[in-house]
Amino acid sequence: MNLKLSTNSQFTIDNLQLNITGSKSETNRLLLLKALFPNVTLANTSNSDDSEVMQMALNGNDEIIDIHHAGTAMRFLTAYFATQEVREVVLTGSQRMTERPIKVLVEALEQLGAQISYEKEVGYPPIRIIGKKITASKVSIPANVSSQYISALLLIAPKLENGLELTLVGDITSVPYIQMTLALLNELDIKTSFEGNVITVYPKKEVESKVMTVESDWSSASYFYSLAALSKHAKISLTSYKKTSLQGDSALAEIYKQMGVETYFEGNKMTLVKQSDFKPKTLNLELNNTPDIAQTIVVTCLGLGIACHLTGLHTLKIKETDRLEALRIELTKLGANISVTNDSLTLIASHTMNQNIKIATYNDHRMAMAFAPLAIKVPIIIENAQVVSKSYPDFWKDLKSLGFEIL
């Protein structure tokens, strides 16, 4: 399904209010914790494909579990099923998923005593897991790979007989996502510590009954920051958000100040307001802790006609697609002067854009949503637009409510 997006030349957003689905990152962590501690109740969970796949896998009894494109589910479920003594499962997914590495996590679990084998290529899904009781409690893992490997181990840790002491080797990537995992454990009164490069999670057989409410997704909010920045005037209210968020992407509030958008909090609502006195300037950002918003940021910069240099992007190479290469290809189609390395992206300021360009999405939800706001500047076509269901199924409906023309 391709969608053509356009707006009128004086596009503004006045006092729009939207409720954004719960954070996929928080939801998937809490779904796993609920599977380990069934008396936990969840509210405002994500309605994304990834979270639905995760929930079905945890609630079902199938031997072969297909998680499609859901990378978080692949990592978290690998750790979960390694500890389930009565289960033997094969975890598989889409073609792209079979190209995304899992070896670092598998080796860490094997250090603890897990029994995991590769069905095809060593280091990649599909994998066969025979659940075992794990009594070992110390393991080390490279810290500069996906933080989801680290979170996967931390989430199962309280149910391990002797807890877990996890040593992170090297520079740590995406620290906010690790801190989110630990904070959710702490909310369930599970004791943890994070000192230097060593994380300890203490064992806990049971937790008290508790309702855990998922904050709305900051990654999804990023597209509305972009819309506000690119609009002539904008005032957009989004719920449910906290000023003191567990999500690393809450850094958006500070980053988008540099692109003319102020954020105001009241209760569980945040309001994005375009500033009339905004003066564009080159953006230099280190996004090691927030790589998922890089696509949105660079597209916003193109639309504003400002240059940017973004670093700390090495994990984007192993996402739903090679996001750095995908950005280079698609932005070049629009007329951008862009270069990428293995961990950085540089955009030269430009004040013209090609119209009616077809943007390929590479089975990547964030490619579709990051490019959509450019329709404020030029008509644009998003290919395979349904891919947004991975994290934000209502995205196109919400854009229509803003006044976008979608054909």
Name some characteristics of this structure.
single chain, alpha/beta, 4-stranded mixed sheet, 407 residues
Word description of this protein:
The chain is built from twelve helices and 22 strands. The chain is globular, with a radius of gyration of 21 Å. It has 407 residues and is an alpha/beta fold. Strands 20-21-1-22 form a four-stranded mixed β-sheet, covered by helices on one side. Strands 2-13-15-14 form a four-stranded mixed β-sheet, with helices on one face. Strands 4-5-7-6 form a four-stranded mixed β-sheet, covered by helices on one side. The relative contact order is 0.14.
Approximate helicity band: 25-40%
Quaternary state of the chains? single chain
Content-based structural category: alpha/beta
Total beta-strand segments:
22
Rg value? 21 Å
Q: Termini distance? A: 10 Å
Please give the count of helices: 12
Report mean pLDDT, rounded to a whole number. 95
Approximate strand percentage:
15-25%
- How is the biggest beta sheet arranged? 4 strands, mixed
Q: Catalogue the unreliable spans.
A: none
Strand order of the largest sheet: 20-21-1-22
Layout of helices and strands:
Blueprint: E1 3-6, E2 12-19, H1 24-36, E3 40-43, H2 49-59, E4 64-66, H3 71-82, E5 88-92, H4 103-112, E6 115-118, E7 127-130, E8 138-142, H5 147-156, E9 164-169, H6 175-187, E10 192-195, E11 198-201, E12 210-213, H7 218-230, E13 233-239, H8 252-255, E14 261-266, E15 269-274, E16 283-286, H9 294-304, E17 308-311, H10 323-333, E18 337-340, E19 344-348, E20 357-359, H11 365-371, E21 380-382, H12 395-402, E22 405-406
Parallel strand pairs: 2-13, 3-12, 4-5, 8-9, 16-17, 20-21
Antiparallel strand pairs: 1-21, 1-22, 5-7, 6-7, 9-11, 10-11, 13-15, 14-15, 17-19, 18-19
Helix pairs in contact: 1-2, 1-3, 1-5, 1-6, 2-3, 3-5, 4-5, 5-6, 7-9, 9-11
